Amino acid sequence: MAQSVYAAITGRYDYLINEENDVSETLNREGLLKAYRTMRTIREFEERVHNDFATGEIPGFVHLYAGEEASATGVCMHLNGDDYIASTHRGHGHCIAKGVDPIGMMAEIWGKKTGSCKGKGGSMHIADLAKGMLGANGIVGGGGPLICGTALASKIKGDKTVGVCFFGDGASNQGTILEAMNLATVWNLPTVFVAENNGYAETTSSSWSVACDNIADRASAFGMPGVIVDGFDFFAVYEAAEEAIKRAREGGGPTLIEVKVSRYYGHFEGDQQTYRASGEVQKLREEKDCLLQFRRRVTSNGIADADLDAIDEQVLALIEDSVVRAKADPKPSTEDLLTDVYVSY
Amino acid sequence: MENEWTLLMIKNSDITVGVIANPASGRDIRRLTAKASVVSITEKANMVQRLLGPLGALGVGRVLMMPDTTGIAAAVRRAVENNQARGRMSWPELVFLDQDLFGGPEDSQTAARLMADVGVRIIVILGGDGTHRVVASSVPDMPLATLSTGTNNVFPDWRESTVTGIATALHATGRVGRDITLRPNKQLRVVLDEREEIALVDACVTRLSHIGARAVWNPETISELFVCFAEADSIGLSSIAAMMEPISRDEPRGAYLRCATDGRQVMAPIAPGVLEPVAVGHFEIMQPDIPYPVYSGHGSIALDGEREIEFRPGQHPEVSLELNGPATLDVPATISAAVESGLMVGWSEQQMSG
Question: Which chain B positions have a beta carbon within 8 Å of A3's beta carbon?
Fold first, then answer.
């Protein structure tokens, strides 16, 4: 519509042939708003957990995903409910992007019976198999073998589902990930390995600890394509993931995508981050932030600021609700200790 | 002859050459969509080392190099230290630039400017079309020795870096004159409001609204194409024009084409491993120094294969062909001239090491 108006004004009919100008076939207005809602939900969720953790009410450890939202969102936008993902310590963003209910997640983090895992897992073990989320993972590099398992099942059953393994730069140096990439190629599994390189394995700079030094370079050793994308740019992640997931679904085998990104908070909450330059995060928030970039680019392309503002308000209300509920909900009982375990007592 | 060379090496030890090895080149989505080649960080570091031997042996005293956080600089530094420890002193002094790194194209641009400030005679670039473009836009008057480590091998040379090192040294030391060593290039200038960018091979208007994963790999997304040159054996977007009417690197004209669904189907290798028909509705020769308007109402413009500029309705980008692009090192002509004047004969092993 906008196109034909433009043609009428400028008289430039000669190029405007019967084709829709669009970002891609799948990313229409609805898709753009969905992407924004997902990224905004992750951000608000993490900012809220950051604030609440400081009060000491949340048990255990939390590892926040703020800053990396475009990665989980750009990848998971292409996944269906029956596709699987394996996650990391830093799993909240992957959960939300894969469709896990933020209210259950918040309750889980607060250790409540209403949580995604009945309050027994906490931040690092949030899982929701019904949503295809195999779980955040306490094992660095633990997701690779899991995703090879679901992908092998998919291949045997022929159900055209795909498994995505998210892992970090620290995990990229773990044997499990390298073994999984080898296996994925040998068995030609429908997998995508997404290396979220946020620059630090806990406190160790990846430019020091990752030999060779782009994680994507390792792909060629396993005979799979390896690409690097800017993790602050939703569209960059989205396009690369679209190709990789399509390739996997069609039987083309595994792909490694290295997402260059940064986390806004410490490795875990409480990390003093003495290994980072002062002002590093501030600069990123002001200049590269995925939500700011996304807003700037889509509002110059037909979506109104008001549309995005409305999503901001809805998301804020959702997260507030999740915290109010989480605080009020009951803790697991003593009897709950003996359920959901391998051995019956 | 021998004495002349020895003297040259001592007298010209302050002769400096720059080296920019882009750690990010050759990593984009075309690895996934088009089986494009990968030049690893390790190989890039090896290529730099293979440059240093001939540079040192032929009288270049110092190499200024861009640092990086991905391991190229670190590997080269280790090699230099090992070389010194083993008593092999023929490499030039290697100095890393003191610059803040941001992990993007600005790193190469900053490095190029710092090198120009110091007065390097030439900059050797390891990268793809994109890397060469950002360096050329940063230091337009600086001669460039080109080595391809990127996706499309259209602007830079695919060449063994040892050989490029020989020609680089012959140029930097003045043993072969600039009239022979350097070859002129054309460039495209893309203007959008206040913004100006250059392209060294092609500027492609796409229907994709966003920069996204940058590369252009689907022919259906292409709406218009401007090319400086389009050689019949080229790869990448410029091949579309090449398959209709090749344009050499030297002739003072370019080409412009516009896609249309009912146009002629042109078979072109628009990406490595991809030969697909592109429907072209209009083709014309581009004359220099005339601004050509972009016809599409909105979309993005890929410079040398990578989407860099987004534009929306109401914005009117223009593209001009310029004949005064960056000068690049003509490796075969340079070495041939050295051979013809007897420069490469008469060396003894003793003199090489001494």
Answer: 297-298
